[in-house]
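Internal QA ticket QA-208
Title: Verify multi-chain structure generation after dependency bump
Assignee: T.L.

Test input:
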Amino acid sequence: MAYSEKVMDHFANPRNVGEMEDADGIGEVGNSKCGDIMKMYIKVKDDVITDVSFKTFGCGAAIATSSMATELVKGHTIPEALQLTNKAVMEALDGLPPVKVHCSVLAEQAIKAAVSDYYQKQGIDPKTVVGEIPEPIECHLED
Amino acid sequence: MEHRVYADNAATTKLSSRALNAMMPYLTDNFGNASSIYTEGGAARKAVDQARETMAQCLHIKNPSELYFLSGGSEADNWAIKGAAELSLKKGKNHIISTKFEHHAVLHTLEYLEKHGYEVTLLDVHEDGLVRPEEFEAAIRENTGLATIMFANNEIGTIQPIQELSAIAKKHGVLFHTDAVQAVGTIPVNVEELGVDMLSLSGHKFHGPKGVGALYLRKGIRLPNLVHGGAQERGYRAGTENTAGIVGMAEALKESCEVMEERNIRLARLRDKLIDSLLTIDRSRINGDRVHRLPGNVNVCFHGVEGEALLLSLDLKGVAASSGSACTSGSLDPSHVLLAIGLPHEVAHGSVRLTFSTETTEEDVDYIISVLPPIIERLRAMSPLWERIIAQDNT
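Actual output:
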């Protein structure tokens, strides 16, 4: 198993890493038993994600996909961010080894979870906009 | 070239130059088949016989013909366990005793046998990673035919009381095999004293070449073949002798035995230095007993950190290590060894194993001590799990 140069770059120099004090939405997915937890923070102004950051417990791919996902939604509108797929995250990283695909799924879900939290705080039912975010009960997520 | 520290010697070791030099003639001019009667074959035959004698001497095996050359540790384990299981079944015994933290070469072989009607009991290895002889004795039944218990664990380096265990097996008429892949060449192994019936070893764990190993098989135990074919290894293991590999393995073992005493004093001191230093890191723990432990094995967990991320970070700093993290194994569960000693999943994910060899220097250990703590700090700073652990602590 080998990671692409891009994955290693985002692992070694993660973008937008760290806690956000005044976040408008915070999403957390994954669980410690499986070895991956992703936490995303977003700052929203006029429906645009003006700032985003993350904290991740997990392997190299988990950290790199978190970092890449933040880059892909930063400065974009919420509807655009909700269009982000795990495939797009993987492609932007020049691919992931098959056993690591679930990390990109988590990254997609983490963004959606942060947007959900934002809507909740705005008094809007997030399910109508974001839909259900499946809770990963088993460690093995479908690709 | 950047500074590299190779600290994964339990995975494999570098071929020693003495072993390589011993091998070279058999990779070049003396390429003959050891089974052929002409001059070239004779040279190979002599080399294989000499290697067998050398190894028997290092391992205190009375009769060199009790040592069978084969392809490595996995084959040795497979042959010993499947063969002895078949022998036992002929006596109506279909129960096998092993432990929860064996190498997969043993555990998966036992799973295979379970599918074919054998019953397997896996002994607990407790928090310290040590088998209790009294629990072994208590697990022996009327129909127990075989016990297979590893000499030293490959992940946490704990050394089992093999002599005591094999004596118990003998008392109850149970065949005893030990997977000594991590022990041979690393710590003294005296087969005669141990009293085992079968013992597996692998050349590349002690600076020999890969793809060659051996099974010690006590005289009189007629294991059915695993590999059928030609009459090599007195008909018990077919396949043209890997002359160069066998010669290299024997030379490497001889070298290991020569330097072992002095080397192990040095490595145990470096091991303790590294363990003591890593345990000063907040919420770290040592895995496995500290006393009954291989001289070059360090296995530590850091809460709130994931093992693969730790390994990648170490690699970027020039350190090669390994982890029991699920993410490094391609499977979804963390190491069965760490789970067997009772670690919760989330802690087992955060382990690192650093293993030394004769080439490891004090500078290497000091370098690891200098680069590891900042890596833990960096990974914890971005870990929501660590954030949670700290928050729980403050409430």
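Spot checks passed. Chain B has two domains: 5-12+260-394, 17-255.
Status: verified.
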